[in-house]
Structures are given as C-alpha cells and as structure tokens.
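Bumping with the actual sequence this time:
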Amino acid sequence: MNISLVNLAAYEMPKAIEDKRKDWVAYGEDNDYYNHLVNAYLTSATNNAAIRSISDLVYGEGICIEDLEKDSNEVKELRKVIGHRCLKKIILERKMLGQAAMQVIYDKAGNKRKVVKIKHFPLCTLRPEKMNSEGVIEAYYYHPDWANKKPNDELKRIPTFGNSTEAVELFVIKPYVSNYYYFSPVDYSGSLPYAELENEISDYLLNEAKNSFSGTKVVNFNNGVPDAEQRREITRKVKSQLTGSRGQKVIVAFNENAESQTSVEDISLNDAPEHYEYLANECRDKILVGHRVTSPMLLGIKDGGNGLASNADEIKNASQLFNSTVIGYYQEEIAESIEEILEVNGEAPELYFITSQPIEFTDENQGEGAEEGEKEETVKEANDKDKEEYNKEQNLSAHLEVSPNFIKDALELYENRRENV
C-alpha cells in the first residue's frame, strides 16, 4: 500500500525578494502580494467592512487647518492642492495595503520649485529600487501590471520625495516595522488567514446551495467496459439528465462486473450547521481583533442587546476609544506627511482631520427628541421641587430653634397631668 502525506499550506508573511540582475525589489515570491491583499479585501465580508469603515472614519469630514473654519479660504486652497477624492484613495490604500503613495507635482524642475498638487498614486503599480549605501530608497519603478510583466517591458523610474530635482516625485507613507525595510506589512496581518477562511467558507456553502446540497454520486455500468467513444457518449447523456448547469457532481464508472465496481465512501460532517456557524463567528471575531475594532456595533454588526438604543452607551464609549487608539493614529500620520510635503513651499500650516462621530451622538440629530427631552426635564424639576417641599414639611422641627426651657416646662406639665390622672 502506497500512502502519501500532504502538508497543508500554512500562511506565511511575504518577503522582499532582491535579485542581483534587477534594480527593483519584488514583494513576495510571485511579486504579487498587493493583489493578495486586494483579494482579501474584496472576498471577505468582515475584512471589507472593517477596512471601509476605518477608512471612512479616518477621513471623517475632511482635512482642515488648525484654528481655521473648514469653509475658510485657506482650507479651500489646501483642498485644491490635495482633493478629497485623492485623499480618500490614499487613506483606503494606507489601511488596505499597509502603505500609500502620493505623487508630488511641482511647478517646475530644479532647486527653486513649489508644490502645486498632491495626487494619489496606485501603490500596486510600484516596486522599490534597491536601497543605497545609507539605507535610503531613492526611487520606485512603475509598471501597470507586475503580475503579467514581461522581461522586455520598459519600467519607468520615479524618484522619491527629496531625492531629486525633477518636477514629479513620490512620497510613500511607509510605517516602520522592524526587519521590514522595503515594504510594511498591514497592521491586520494576523487576521489575514481568517479573511481567507471566511472566503473559502462562503464559496463552499454557495457551491453546496447551487448544487441543491447534493453529495457525490457514482453511476456504475456493470455489463462490460465499452470503447472510448461509447464511454464519452454514455457519460454525456447521463450528465445531461442528472446534473444541473452548475458543476458536475456525478461520476460515471465502467466496470467489468458488479464485484469490481467503483465504490466511494462519503465522509460526512456531523452538526454541519453548528460547525459552519462556529467558523463564521470565529473568523468575524478574529478579523475584528486584527483591525482593533473595539465594538462590532461600530461596523453596523449587532452584538447582543435588544436594539440600538440599548447599546447606545457601548457605541459611544467604543467610538471614543476607537478614535483615540486607531483612527487618531492614521489621521496624525497622514496629516504630518502632507505637512512635510507642504514645507517645501515654506512654513506649513498645522493640519488635522475633522473627526466624525456616530450619528446618534451628533448635535444635528438630537433636535428631533429635544422637545420631549425638555418636557421630561421640566417634569423632573417639578417633581424634585415637590419632593423638597414635602421633606421640609416632614422635617420642619429640624429647621426650628427650640429653647431648652420650653422642653423642660413641657416635661413638667406632662408629669403633672399623669399624677392627676
């Protein structure tokens, strides 16, 4: 008996691959790891919701200048330099891919130049040049599709910010991670296997549903083995009658006799619904942990309770914690990167993002219940006043100054009346 052991593939972090024959550095063995991250974003429902929600919260109501209103002329000019669409793309890629690239456009080439535009540049199309002797990446190479790059394709070299005098440079937001010099792994890398598992579960269940939850079937013809042409024709007819348009679940086997027929044993999964429910919940929880989501309610995922109102305190507290530990970090990082670019033009303004809060806690959405709230407050004040008056009446003696002689005379009068009785 021959037995083969199959090692199931384990998730491995990608590595920067340097080739002596090339000036650029590959990301992963197949140089296509960015597409793997994009696929994890598109195919995992929980991962998609987390990345999109965090990106929206980071952008909030847009970027602004400290001590200025968002509709001031200075802020309007800032938003002409970096538009809201480009800024949203930068934030999304920073979260999804772990890095982000900005194209810095100057008014001219040379030493005396000014930044006139900051635009988003697709990070998937870039690969870093090998570092110089000081550990600086001086340029990135551009190709529209690295997965299908041909050996004779010409690459465009784009210098990085501050390392040239050209009219166009790249500013790459790349957080520091120990032992990662060319690429920064995403901050949710620990939950990527669960995003892939969530996708596999959904594909499996979808396939089962489309095939009417049918198992594998074997059709045996035990009256001899026909020639190849007859086998193909019989197989075609059987499949056309017994299988649907989505997948072929029927195996047609030809045997010399019944004793030599093909046999297949199904390995069934006990308590399959509970098993899949456990896996789905485990994937969701681990993905949210990977993204440091303080409460599923922030992503619109109901987590116990009898309704939204019963979780109001949880949403408010979770939102405040989430903003201070996660959202604020991204906002500060991106704002400081833009400030660094604008310093080329002189002293740069201090930038910040206008943070948006859950809709239940914004001032604009509290007007609907304001009148009822005022009425309830009025009733409460009236009840408190009545209670206070009642306590005063019941404890009036506590507020009067009683003479000790009055108490002595009253006791003597009381003893005389007892003796006369």
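The tokens above came from a reply further down the thread. DSSP finds ten helices and twelve strands in the chain.
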